[in-house]
Write a structure and sequence with these properties.
4 copies of one chain form a homotetramer. Chain A has 186 residues and is mainly alpha-helical. The first copy, chain A, folds into 2 domains: 1-46, Homeodomain-like (Arc Repressor Mutant, subunit A); 57-185, Tetracycline Repressor, domain 2 (Orthogonal Bundle), CATH 1.10.357.10. Helices cover 78% and strands 0% of the residues of chain A. In chain A, helix 5 (78-95) runs antiparallel to helix 7. The structure holds a DNA duplex (21 and 21 nucleotides).
DNA sequence: CATGAATGAGACTTCATTCAT
DNA sequence: AATGAATGAAGTCTCATTCAT
């Protein structure tokens, strides 16, 4: 069952633990024990805990980009694309036990130092913002309005994720879904 | 200038540090050194770091409640109250160097083990939700609509705070302000 | 038998180990195990291994200064003072199993960083140089000659210590004794 | 520019690093990275770090022997030979940034466990002692005196090297030069 | 010959907490 | 109420070495 590749095992383990408990609540020891690796093996592949965090965020970003690309490239109407996105967001929250956005959670404990991580967070968030805007561009003739609705959707996505995590309840996502659907009608 | 009261000094120091760096990034040592207290004095007043965190969140909650009470009790029209709230949110973000919501930030590194903190987070957030809803009740005759707009505003508040922190930029707040103003017109 | 004071126990243990094996060959673990202390107790008293090294060198320096003061203040003739010094050096080398000068040994592995330690080494050595010079001042009318013989004795002290350590043999000290005696006659 | 021979590259790199920072301050990783070799390639050529150290000391010894042979075999008078030696010592100290004798520096962090290295140190030092004695044999008819002056020069060489390293200053070498010149006159 | 992954042991340091005074 | 010393556990990271390819 155990993968032969230690680097992958470490990354997968860390992904799970970082997401579940938060970056600063997970120690190297816990990671290597769960991944069944030696400590030095870890540092063979990742120069530091922070570097592992960056690698993890990279994979999250890539999956996120792929997911959004799939939606963008799909044959759905713009409103349906937004609907899909929020439906998937709901599944994500439920499946991850309401642990919310890995980027926001990591940003909560990496201010100051960690310039690399902060950059990743900004890039990721900006990329999601553009996702919403680009879909709105398809829906609304007025570019200014498209941008405005896009940013609005972005805030709904973020707020509903944050509060579903805080409240351990799915209702914020449901509200966001309803509001988003309404927005795309106009 | 140093306050004579050790308990207060500890709480104020912790408030500053927890907010600036995140709960898990601040150690007891840093707190007592900054507060110029002995270690055992700390445990005289607070049984644990977690208890101090709860005390901190309590003060944040109290200030927040007072702030919102002031708005609610003010003579402004509902739309103006919302406007006030988001204007103050903007100041808060700028003044706190874009460190965002103490509750969300703490929730990002708190798992099931900290039942007390999680409860506080939920109470605080629910209280803000009700704040928005109650103002909307004044604005909209339809109670269902009021609730809906209230929750919508809640998500805008949360999303704009989260993303202003992530992006280290005030634009999400600005967007939320504009959207909120629009919402209160209908 | 065990001293109640952990700080002293740590310093004494480290003094022994650093001298016997060399600064870089002794780990914190070995120190605290030998001193029967917890690791955190160590860091309560010394902020770092390097700081402990400095504290150790301080005690060596102080003992050395006292020793040399005793000689200087004694009623012996200058030549006898020098004789005393080299006789004590012989005892020191034998008693310390030919481990030589703690300062030179530490300097061998602390180049680059460790500015504090390097400063201590220089101060210590300069202080010994002045010790020789001051005694020579009592013996020789010509100040220039006194300085010259003083420095000469300084090199004999250093060379004999170094080579007794390298060769694990006392003959270099014996040679230095003879030469020094000769020098003080002229 | 990179040598094709890995073994040589490793030895040269280690020579540089061991001398500059001290044996115990240089890790295998730093060596192989600087030498651009794989870790296992290192152990193909050298069974251990200690063995590499011995190989390094061997090259130092060989260069030293050649240097001294050149002086011994030269057409200079004995006093000039001594003068040459100390002049070269001055250059060596300046060029090596006052890092002093590789043997003494290694001995400072090597205990009984490294019998091989200790033997090398003793052989090297004894060989230098004999170098001084043999030149003195040419100068002085009295064999006993020759031995005595030879050992004296040996201590001057060692002490001046040690203290130039400690003090990061060339004056000890200068003093040794002057004293040595004087000694060779008598 | 050369290689990169893997390792157990240990490096130095800090954690939140308790105890004796 | 206040203090500084003491602690076990855990933190991140590096050591010299070996192994399979």
């Amino acid at each position: 069952m155990r993968k032969s590749n230690a680097k992958e095992r470490i990354l997968e383990t860390a992904s799970k633990l970082f997401h579940e408990k938060g970056y600063s609540e997970v120690g190297i020891n816990e990671i290597i024990e769960t991944a069944e690796t030696a400590k030095a093996s870890f540092y063979q592949h990742y120069p530091s805990k922070e570097a592992l965090c960056e690698a993890w965020l990279d994979t999250v970003h890539e999956r996120s980009e792929n997911h959004r690309s799939d939606i963008v490239d799909s044959e759905q109407a713009p409103a349906e694309k937004i609907e899909s996105y929020f439906r998937d967001l709901e599944s994500f929250m439920v499946n991850s036990n309401f642990r919310g956005c890995p980027y926001s959670n990591t940003g909560a404990v990496t201010d100051g130092a960690c310039a690399g991580i902060i950059g990743q967070i900004q890039d990721h968030k900006e990329s999601i913002r553009q996702f919403f805007r680009s879909i709105c561009m398809q829906q609304f003739e007025d570019a200014a309005k498209a941008e405005c609705v896009g940013d609005h959707l972005f805030l709904l996505y973020s707020g509903s994720t944050t509060e579903a995590q805080n409240l351990k309840d799915i209702w914020p996502i449901k509200v966001a879904q309803a509001v988003a659907a309404e927005l795309m009608k106009s």
